Request: fold
Amino acid sequence: MLLLNIFKYNKSMKKIIIITGASSGMGAEFARQLSVRKCEDGGKIDEIWIIARREDRLKELSAELTGGSGAFVPLIKPIAVDIGGRKGGEIIGGLLAKEAGGVVIDTLVNNAGFGTYGRFDSTDIKWQLDEIDLNVTSPTAITWAALPYMERGSRIINTASLAAFSAMGCFAIYAATKAYMLSFTLGLAAELHSKGVKVIALCPGPVDTEFSQVASEGVRNKVLHGKKPYAVVRHCLRSLEKGKKIAVMAPKWKFKAFLPRLFGRYFTAKVTMLTEKRPSKKD
Ligand SMILES: NC(=O)c1ccc[n+]([C@@H]2O[C@H](COP(=O)([O-])OP(=O)(O)OC[C@H]3O[C@@H](n4cnc5c(N)ncnc54)[C@H](OP(=O)(O)O)[C@@H]3O)[C@@H](O)[C@H]2O)c1
Reply:
């Protein structure tokens, strides 16, 4: 039943890209780099839906991307909405169903997410459950809602993390949500391979975004030793073109992803807890 539009697709349908978590960091960078994308069939992207809660940021990004040289730019559509949990799928599914004339999703970027620094037992449980809702339930529901609008050549990018490869003390829920994202991505990639839909998990180490500010509730304002979002996103898009299923950019990150296999995940959970201090308000 899924991927029905493969059979219904016609050239007059709108081609769109959907990016969640696009008001800052890597999501905004995906919008910048994908706004110049040419489709596999040589066609152009008609619209990019940029999704997050902060409307002012989305409007700024939309103005930045459309205010350029006059060359063809897709319509950048800011959608200011909270997509946490199951409602994420209902919202995106509802917007897609409203598209008169039909729509094909060229690329879906499931990127919205956040972390919570600190011990599990001393961190507000509602906040941690919201983290699971946004990092796990929401991209799952959104992907399910989006699949019927995909065709051969469509792509799904799921932002996981280097944390996906290991369990982590004092970052326990976050690492667990990203392990889900990595596993979900690979399973989906296997299922969709024969349909010609490419799926990749982006697994970066530290990236210079607003991530730490949110995860530490303002205690730490900068991601330590963060790489530039531009480089991380560019590497991910190139890896996707090459048919890779996982994007891990830096050699140091590749080494770190390998360590849990060597020493076991409990060992790396303890080591990361003791050596990678993540400050929280409770400290
Ligand atoms: N930075 C890192 O070191 C790093 C490393 C590995 C993986 N990641 C992952 O990369 C992804 C992007 O994060 P980032 O580093 O770019 O951090 P960021 O700058 O904080 O971006 C997070 C994005 O998610 C959006 N978001 C948060 N809650 C939302 C909600 N309920 N509904 C809709 N949108 C929501 C935020 O926008 P609003 O606040 O406007 O809603 C923002 O656009 C996340 O999945 C994160 O886990 C980050």
User: Anything to note?
Assistant: The CA atoms of residues 111 and 159 lie 5 Å apart. The chain has one domain: 12-275. The domain at 12-275 is CATH 3.40.50.720 (Rossmann fold).
